[in-house]
Specification:
Blueprint lengths: L3 E4 L5 E7 L2 H14 L11 E9 L2 H19 L1 E12 L5 E11 L13 E2 L5 E4 L3 E8 L1
Antiparallel strand pairs: 1-2, 2-8, 3-5, 4-5, 6-8, 7-8
Length: 141
């Protein structure tokens, strides 16, 4: 199983990420998001950031997760290479995402940016489960 693939799109970046579990799919989606901006091989994990999110369904949680990564990129001036995601169902029928993101502060000597993601769009955003979990995302660049 491939972790993610980029698809044709006229103006923005479109990808699908896959996983055997929803958590693996979300981790792979984060990796696809970041690879669209900067080569992961140039990133050294020197710091970690913790993320905790809550939503009533997996699709909303996935959207929040990807938006949070873009927010951290912008506010922390950081690039990320590792994404460890755990999902929990809480007693109130909502889901919780607990994640640890590994990366470092941007170093323009080593980090060359191919694209800058402005936002995660809701256009054609969705999650399906067939043999594996699949999320489709369009990034506004």
């Amino acid at each position: 199983m491939i972790p993610f693939e980029y698809l044709e799109h006229t103006a923005d970046i479109k990808f699908r990420a896959y996983g055997k579990t929803p958590a693996e799919m979300l981790s792979n989606a984060a990796a696809a998001l970041f690879k669209s901006m900067v080569e992961p091989a140039t990133i050294v994990v020197k710091e970690t950031w913790k993320v905790e999110l809550k939503a009533f369904d997996l699709e909303d949680l996935a959207y929040q997760w990807l938006c949070e990564i873009v927010f951290l990129f912008e506010t922390e001036s950081a690039v990320f290479a590792t994404f460890s995601v755990n999902l929990e169902q809480d007693g109130t029928e909502s889901m919780r995402l607990l994640a640890e993101i590994g990366g470092e502060r941007i170093d323009l000597q080593r980090h060359s940016f191919e694209n800058e993601v402005k936002a995660i769009t809701r256009h054609k955003f969705g999650i399906k489960k067939n043999e594996v979990w699949c999320i489709q995302v369009i990034l506004d660049v």
